[in-house]
Backbone:
């Protein structure tokens, strides 16, 4: 029994009034697809720790890859609200499915579109948009996570090519990627993006096993052992940490929306259960303590929706700052994780089973609160922004 197929999207403050017809059509299409293609299979994939790879082409068909990339490069030319709504619906299905689309869109297509040469854009973007090609993003290293500026992955100019050495860890899509956007330092210590392609000698991507979170998502390493990277595979349009950080801003923006989908799914399932489940002769929804959980959940979802929507408008106008994105990512992920925990309790024992989505969302959100900048690091970014004093640096 999957109660979420009866999903009712909470919209307490009538935020739908702020959306265009196009936004609503896109959201409805992705919502239907999630109900049809993700919900029925996701619990089993999660249990088996297998990414549902057969969904990739369908994700391309519904426009989940690069919705804001212009149409002449295979995208849909939509705005950032549409992108957010797509992420929300995908994450209502599963954070792993949303992660796959986030990486493909914000961490692979976005840097190629923003910093790539015309040849790179033509070669990669249309195929990434359909899902014919899969991408991944290599920034984190075994010994450098929150502090990527200290990375040790390096490339040397060998005249007619670059020689790349180093390793990346915790990389979403790593083993299935055809192209990896890899951030590495040149001999002067300046960070550049390199497009490393599957099959280049010396490049391997072993999978990371044993995750209790994001189990329906591929995570692995990227290992570079004297990889010869053609010179035309360097992203010419950016140098320094601004490159990866601008990609992260785009992805974090999508996460701020995505996690609302997970929270909605938990809230909606718990509300329905609480109305039906009887104890002491009445529905558990009639007890004040259960109402407190539900009332706080809808309040927090509504606040998160407002934050995400306003951030989307600012992003559409080119006015959003990275610190504003940090605030929304941090607030909304913590909101969703708390709601997953509270809504699970509303279901009592049933809440721990895979008949309901709460435990899966909860475990997924433990990754989401860590990746793309941890909860604590985002707080320090807000602290830096309001004081001018960077507490996260030595
Ligand atoms: C499932 C999954 C998928 C991922 N996918 C990708 C991907 O596709 N590409 C990619 O590049 N990376 C990816 N990551 C990596 C992710 O971005 C990092 O895990 C994250 O940036 C944190 O780095 P770390 O795990 O090394 O933790 P660390 O940086 O070692 O942090 C450990 C703890 O110390 C805290 N901390 C660190 N610095 C400070 C400070 N200055 N002040 C206070 N506290 C601090 C952190 O908040 C955290 O609680 C993924 C991670 C996961 C779990």
Residues:
């Amino acid at each position: 029994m999957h109660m979420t197929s009866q999903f009712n999207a909470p919209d307490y403050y009538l935020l739908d009034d702020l959306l265009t017809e196009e936004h609503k059509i896109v959201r409805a299409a992705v919502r239907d697809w999630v109900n049809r293609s993700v919900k029925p299979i996701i619990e089993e994939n999660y249990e088996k720790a297998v990414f549902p790879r057969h969904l990739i082409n369908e994700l391309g068909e519904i426009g989940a890859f690069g919705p804001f990339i212009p149409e002449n490069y295979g995208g849909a030319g939509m705005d950032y609200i549409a992108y957010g709504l797509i992420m929300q619906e995908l994450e209502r299905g599963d954070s792993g499915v949303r992660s796959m689309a986030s990486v493909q869109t914000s961490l692979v297509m976005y840097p190629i579109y923003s910093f790539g040469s015309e040849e790179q854009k033509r070669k990669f973007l249309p195929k990434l948009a359909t899902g014919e090609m899969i991408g991944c993003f290599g920034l984190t290293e075994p010994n450098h996570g929150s502090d990527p500026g200290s990375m040790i992955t390096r490339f040397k100019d060998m005249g007619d090519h670059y020689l790349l050495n180093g390793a990346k860890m915790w990389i979403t899509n790593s083993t299935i990627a055809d192209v990896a956007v890899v951030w590495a330092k040149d001999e002067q210590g300046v960070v550049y993006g390199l497009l490393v392609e599957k099959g280049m000698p010396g490049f391997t991507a072993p999978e990371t096993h044993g995750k209790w979170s994001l189990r329906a998502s591929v995570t692995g390493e990227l290992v570079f052992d004297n990889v010869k990277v053609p010179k035309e595979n360097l992203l010419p349009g950016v140098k320094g940490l601004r490159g990866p950080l601008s990609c992260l801003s785009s992805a974090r923006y999508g996460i701020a929306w995505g996690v609302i989908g997970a929270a909605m799914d938990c809230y909606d399932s718990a509300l329905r259960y609480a109305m039906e489940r009887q104890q002491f002769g009445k529905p558990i929804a009639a007890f004040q303590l259960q109402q407190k959980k539900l009332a706080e959940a809808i309040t927090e979802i509504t606040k998160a929706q407002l934050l995400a929507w306003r951030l989307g408008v600012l992003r559409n106008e080119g006015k959003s700052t990275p610190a504003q994105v940090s605030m929304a990512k941090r607030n909304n992920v913590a909101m969703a994780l708390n709601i997953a925990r509270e809504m699970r309790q509303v279901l009592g024992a049933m809440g721990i089973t895979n008949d309901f989505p709460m435990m899966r969302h909860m475990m997924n959100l433990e990754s989401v609160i860590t990746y793309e900048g941890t909860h604590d690091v985002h707080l320090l970014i807000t602290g830096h922004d309001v004081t001018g004093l960077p507490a996260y640096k030595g």
Remarks:
- The pocket of flavin-adenine dinucleotide is lined by residues 103, 137-140, 145-146, 170-172, 214, 219, 367, 370-372, 374, 376-377, 380, 392 (CB under 6 Å).
- Residues 18 and 309 are 9 Å apart (CA to CA).
- The chain has a mean pLDDT of 97.
